[in-house]
């Protein structure tokens, strides 16, 4: 606003310019005040800047101010009086939207249900009461270096379970959920797909032979660089790499899930019309297409946005029905802290020792064992796959409520589970020793 007045004042005498400038700048907000909406988000700047610029072109009197907050900090910010002054919450955080909805933190928003179905296959991805709407959907699966896989005669995995085979697992990289934000959801999808007990058995076997990584971009980066053939990942890393010329394919195993990011208006927003306008733009066909730029490569939640989509992106609304898991969001939003803890205790800790035990099992199984030996090896597998939490507990809301925050978990429980896992691994070692197999 002051720059405009500076241009006007260039014709004034120098002696008058400075005091006149002060007067004009002091009056500027009153004469043409720019409206502002505050958007709390965790999306990357290259994406949010694009939306800010395009929205402000269409609404020149409104300025978008972003407040970047990751999941825990965003929940704290939006729980403050007047919700910290926020008008819109826009983020890929399943749990936060459900928690805040239950607290009455969102105002109903208007959407065109004819073009925004709020569903993917049979999976609802938006709030049925209209308190928040899906903005995009992120798929979980496997990044694959296609030329390297072909050279090693490894086909694209069609099911998660194939990755537990030693020839796949030894060429696999996996993110550590305590270190990588998207991976607790990835492993919960895996467990919902394969079942709690069978899923942990597969995870134990495949992770023992895999490399474990502590940064979200690393699985795709190592696949791209040929350091691994396969990497468990969220799709926008792999799809963006492919769009930029890397020999990377994104594989969606059967019964995977596409989980939504959401957008909502806060109940305390004093700028209802402008907040709704920002939401409308984000969900419009033009707005949805913005996320498919080469540096973002995300999947819109609006089916008609896939017209003329980039070749690197799939249209999840047209995938075969057997690809999409009927994902339980209520369990999924509550279980990640527990999954993260168990992954640390059973897989990350003593990773090298676990790998040696699994290699011994695999070697013994290759020798065409007799019936008694086969039973013993099956028992060793059970001991290696032991998990101190049952399937019933893993679906019990009250039980899961004890693990909402890692900091609040009873240290005695952690110590007990660690001891139980160690004891089970020792039993596996004893079984193998009895068979004459030295880990």
UniProtKB/TrEMBL annotation:
Task: Point out the signal peptide segment.
Answer: 1-17
Q: Which SUPFAM superfamilies match?
A: Periplasmic binding protein-like II (SSF53850)
The keyword Signal belongs to this UniProt entry's keyword annotation: yes
Tell me yes or no: is Transit peptide among this UniProt entry's keywords: no
Its keywords, alphabetically, are:
Signal
Q: Where are the transmembrane segments?
A: none
- The protein depicted here goes by the name Extracellular solute-binding protein
Source organism (scientific name):
Methylocystis parvus
